[in-house]
Specification:
By secondary structure, this protein is mainly alpha-helical. It has one domain. It is built from 6 helices and 2 strands; from the N terminus they run αβαααααβ. It has a two-stranded parallel ribbon. The longest helix has about 30 residues.
Amino acid sequence: MTEKILMYRKVIRETPFQFEEFLRLSFRMLKVAIWKILIFGLLGVVIFIFSFIPVLNLVSLALSYFLMAIDSMDYSWEVKGMEFSERVQDIFVNKSFLFGVSLAIAFVSLVPALPLVLMPLAIAGCAEYFSHSDHTLSKGTCYGKS
């Protein structure tokens, strides 16, 4: 659904499947995923430690929701083909939007099991926002029908 939103908004274009391009994209995505694991793992440990300290436990809760908002936006970045440094810049540019998404996730989390149903909508909403921000067709492709 996210790819369809981004294609409809002309943020990415559908291209024929090419194996070499697919491998290049897969290795680049693997590199970004390893960075994400390291950074999210480190932040997760810090958030976990903060959760045991009074007052800082509220900060850790807010940070965990903010990380969930960043993860919701990550699929759009992935489809667009953004490098890790570009993603970090985009976080700073769109921090108010991501803060709003984190508040929405926090409110949705008040009802048990509701985040499981509504998180795909958060990802689609982030794709819709991403399509309206300043991102062009320069790099984004989506492999689909030939």
